[in-house]
Each structure stands twice: as structure tokens, then as C-alpha cells.
Design a protein that fits this description.
Blueprint: E1 2-13, E2 16-27, E3 31-35, H1 42-50, E4 57-62, E5 65-66, E6 77-80, H2 92-102, H3 107-120, H4 136-149, E7 154-158, H5 166-183, E8 186-191, H6 194-200, E9 203-208, E10 211-216, H7 218-223, H8 228-233, E11 238-244, E12 249-252, E13 255-258, H9 261-265, E14 270-275, E15 281-282, E16 290-302, E17 307-313, E18 317-323, H10 327-330, E19 337-343, E20 348-350
Parallel strand pairs: 3-8, 3-9, 6-7, 7-8
Antiparallel strand pairs: 1-2, 1-4, 4-5, 9-10, 11-12, 11-14, 12-13, 14-20, 15-19, 16-17, 16-19, 17-18
This protein binds adenosine-5'-triphosphate.
Adenosine-5'-triphosphate binds near residues 39, 42 and 192.
Length: about 350
């Protein structure tokens, strides 16, 4: 069942079209993330849902209700901002109570609800502190508590973790996900961090150039990227030119392989193959049909958990490989040869171009 529906949303700033035609359904109780590079339109879309600005055309529904023309304070949405946006002259308690006081909720209830939510976000012992006495992570918990305490139908979050250091980001994202699941609150979350988006979301919408390029589960976005942009932006990939032959085969890294039907039917003599670095096998036999090439190690980085290799394959440029740490491979020095293997079943094929669609 959908809780938020965005129907044909368009928005321009002067001549610049920031949202081209956004059509998205967000399920009740789900954690939905807008992911994309800077300038792709994420914040513009989130602010249209919040009511901070109006879309030029299209409609926004929360449940059955059309909210696209309502002022922001009548939309029953909570918002958490990147820069915390806490009131510096109000205590933690008063910051969180603010929305309830505005709604003229009786004082006894305000006290009870604020105390309960502060406990939930682990700030009960800091209720009387002023914002400048809090860390960035604690200030963002105040922002979260303030948004949740009004019991909104939808929670909107605009890069809420981007001002925090790496460790705190991971801790707080766990807490946000746990709270969201506990409250069952439909959440629309904006980030440009693809790992964060995969980790936290039920559904991810990858945006680029004012378009939703793909909406899907983190698994689908990573494993079946709808087009080359998604495959580039989410995780890493080795892209390789592919010649499509008229005899039903294709040529990848100098090796002929049977062309999948969609590649054969693709009306072009060339396309692009993609393989994730973690699928490239190093000095290992292949379990099925595929490509094996020799290459020269150019760089090797051992990070403890994994081993990142850059290998030059003569005539075909460099390929990245990511393997589990292996002492024998760690010992190989740059300039020495090794063997790379790619199973045919691990290769995805895309049409040419920045947003060339997934063929197979
Ligand atoms: P970021 O991750 O950098 O915040 P974003 O994906 O949220 O990026 P938006 O803030 O939605 O991007 O902006 C989308 C595009 O619209 C950008 O190219 C931006 O320069 C442009 N834009 C945003 N606000 C305005 C404005 N008020 N006037 C003119 N152009 C704007």
C-alpha cells in the first residue's frame, strides 16, 4: 500500500529544469532513499514534499489526501535537516517541545511526550542542556526527536548525517533505521552516499539530471542496475567495450563468448560490458564459461579486510579486482604478472552512452 505518491512532478528554476517528470510510489512504513550526485534534484524533490516550495506541475499525495497545495505546516510531515537546525537559544527540552506547543497540546502532555521521545533518542539526561553544550551527533538526535514528537505521517530527512564523522555516521544511521522500524514511519531520506543508501533503505531511487533513473531494493539497484549511470554511481564497476558480432557471439577482452539474446537483438555492433571488481577472480580457475587474461599488477592495496588490485591488461587498459586477503597474492609485487578471470554469468551488458540501458 502506498503512503506517498508523487505524480508527474516537474520543477524549474528559471530556464533550468531541476525535476523533469518524477513519478514515484512510496510504501506505507517503508524507508525510501533518494540517492544521487550533487545537483540531481534530490533536495528539490524533498522540499516539494515538505511544502517549502511548490512544484510547477504534478501532484503529491499522502495516503488518499492531496497535499501538493497545502502550506508546509498543514502537511503533517516531519523534517530533519543536514545542519541540525536546532534553536540555539532553547534547551533540548524546549527545542523538542516546540512543535507541540505550536499545536497547543496541553502542557502535561507536552512534558510526557517530550520525555518519552528524549528517552528513545538517548537524550533523557541532557534535557536541560543548551544546543552548544551538545556534540553534532547529539544535536542531530534533537532534530530527530523534534521531528518525531509531532507524530508525522511522513518523516523527511535531508542528508542528516553528512556533518558527522565516519564512525558517528554509522552509529546514528543504525539508530535512525531502528527508530524508523519501531515507529513504522514512512521515511523519505536524501543522501549522496551510496553505501549509506544501500545499508539503510527498503527502497532506493537513484536520481540523475532531474530524472528517477531506477527505483528498487538495494539488492536490485546493486545487482541489476537499470542503466550505466546507476552501475557507475552505485558501487564500482569495470566497464569494457564489447564488439557484437553478426554470428551470435560477442568479443570481450579479446575473447569470444556467446552473446545473450538481448545483446544479439540490440541494434548496434557494440555495447559495454561491466563486471564488479569483487567478481574478478585472481589466479583462480573459472567455474564456467568466461574470459581469462594475463595482466601486469600496477597497484596492490591491502586494507586488512580485503585486497584491492589494479591490473593492466595489454591492449585493454586496466581492470580493478577486489579479493579476500590472500597471503600469496599480497606478496605479488607491482610489475609482476597475474591471471584474471571473469565468468560470463558475472558480466552485465549496457547500451552505449552515459545512461545506456541494461541489456542483459
Ligand atoms: P546536493 O546533493 O548538492 O544538495 P541535490 O541533488 O539536492 O544536490 P538540488 O538542490 O535539488 O540538488 O538542485 C537541483 C538543481 O537545481 C541544481 O543544479 C541546482 O543548482 C539547481 N537549483 C536548486 N535551487 C535553486 C534555486 N533556488 N535557483 C536556481 N537553481 C537552483
Amino acid at each position: 500500500m502506498s503512503q506517498v505518491q508523487l505524480k508527474n512532478i516537474k520543477k524549474s528554476y528559471g530556464n533550468y529544469v531541476a525535476l523533469k517528470n518524477i513519478d514515484i510510489d512510496i510504501g506505507l512504513g517503508s524507508f525510501f532513499t533518494l540517492l544521487g550526485p550533487s545537483g540531481c534534484g534530490k533536495t528539490t524533490l524533498l522540499r516539494a514534499i515538505a511544502g517549502f516550495h511548490r512544484q510547477d506541475s504534478g501532484e503529491i499525495y499522502v495516503g488518499e489526501k492531496s497535499i501538493g497545495q497545502l502550506p508546509a505546516n498543514k502537511r503533517n510531515v516531519g523534517m530533519v535537516f543536514q545542519d541540525y537546525a536546532v534553536f540555539p537559544h532553547l534547551s533540548v527540552f524546549d527545542n523538542v517541545a516546540f512543535g507541540l506547543v505550536q499545536q497547543k497540546v496541553p502542557a502535561a502532555q507536552v512534558k510526557e511526550r517530550v520525555a518519552a521521545i528524549l528517552k528513545t533518542v538517548h537524550l533523557a539526561q541532557h534535557a536541560e542542556r543548551m544546543p552548544h553544550q551538545l556534540s553534532g551527533g547529539q544535536q542531530q538526535r534533537v532534530g530527530l526527536a523534534r521531528a518525531l514528537v509531532i507524530r508525522p505521517k511522513v518523516l523527511l530527512m535531508d542528508e542528516p548525517l553528512s556533518n558527522l564523522d565516519a564512525k558517528l555516521r554509522i552509529d546514528l544511521r543504525r539508530d535512525i533505521r531502528q527508530l524508523q522500524q519501531e515507529f513504522g514511519i514512512t521515511t523519505v531520506y536524501v543522501t549522496h552516499d551510496q553505501e549509506e543508501a544501500l545499508a539503510i533503505s527498503d527502497q532506493v531511487c537513484v536520481m540523475y539530471d532531474g530524472w528517477a533513473q531506477q527505483v528498487g531494493s538495494p539488492w536490485a539497484i546493486y545487482n541489476q542496475p537499470a542503466n550505466r549511470f546507476v552501475a557507475t554511481f552505485v558501487g564500482s564497476n569495470n566497464f569494457m567495450p564489447v564488439a557484437v558480432r553478426s554470428d551470435g557471439e560477442l568479443e570481450l577482452l579479446g575473447t569470444r563468448l556467446p552473446a545473450p539474446p538481448a545483446v544479439r537483438e540490440h541494434a548496434s555492433a557494440s555495447c559495454v560490458g561491466a563486471v564488479r571488481p569483487e567478481k574478478v577472480r585472481v589466479n583462480q580457475a573459472l567455474a564456467g564459461p568466461g574470459v581469462q587474461v594475463r595482466g601486469v599488477l600496477r597497484q596492490s592495496m591491502f586494507t586488512g579486510r580485503e585486497l584491492q588490485l589494479t591490473v593492466e591488461v595489454e591492449g585493454h587498459g586496466t581492470l580493478d579486482a577486489l579479493t579476500a586477503p590472500d597471503e600469496a597474492i599480497v606478496a605479488i609485487k607491482p610489475g609482476h604478472e597475474l591471471q584474471l578471470g571473469i565468468q560470463a554469468s558475472d558480466v552485465l551488458y549496457f547500451a552505449e552512452g552515459e545512461t545506456g540501458k541494461l541489456l542483459s
